[in-house]
Amino acid sequence: MAMTYESIVEAARDKFCGVDVSSVEGTKAFQINIEGKAVNGIFYIEIKDGKVNVEPYEYYDRNAILTMNGTNFIKLINGKLDPVVAFTMGKIKVDGDVNAALEMIKFIK
């Protein structure tokens, strides 16, 4: 199946849908910028009131922006790409609170 922006957002929704984020205080929000040859797009992942929202919009009051290509995002949420290694190797760029971004990624392992 060809990867599309919609399929990436849907995969993120599916992955975060059943995650227990009750331990997260306040609101944490992350904008994901997908940049690549095949797929480009922006969406956000918001953790608020014990729930996760994934929506296809920009998020201005965010903790961090994570930029990567679609393939690496799918690998990341499926546990096939270690976030720390990916960050170190430049496969993921984080603009903002790196620790908050890593904390968010840990929820999906």
Structural description of this entry:
The chain has 109 residues and is α+β, with helices and mostly antiparallel strands. Helices cover 33% and strands 27% of the residues. It has four helices and five strands. It has helices at residues 5-17, 70-77, 83-88, 98-106, and strands spanning 28-34, 41-48, 51-55, 64-68, 93-96. It has a five-stranded mixed sheet. α1 (5-17) packs parallel to α2. It starts with a helix and ends with a helix. 26% of the residues are buried. The model has no long low-confidence stretch (mean pLDDT 92).
List the helices and strands and how they pair.
Blueprint: H1 5-17, E1 28-34, E2 41-48, E3 51-55, E4 64-68, H2 70-77, H3 83-88, E5 93-96, H4 98-106
Parallel strand pairs: 1-4
Antiparallel strand pairs: 1-2, 2-3, 4-5
Helix pairs in contact: 1-2
Terminal Cα span: 24 Å
- Widest sheet, order of strands: 3-2-1-4-5
- How helix-rich are the residues, as a percent range? 25-40%
User: What portion of residues belong to β-strands?
Assistant: 25-35%
The H-and-E topology, N to C, reads as: HEEEEHHEH
Radius of gyration: 13 Å
User: Which descriptor suits the 3D outline?
Assistant: globular
Mind summarizing the main beta sheet?
A: 5 strands, mixed
Mean pLDDT: 92
Q: Unreliable runs, pLDDT <50, ≥5 residues?
A: none
The overall strand count is: 5
Number of separate helices: 4
Structural class: alpha+beta
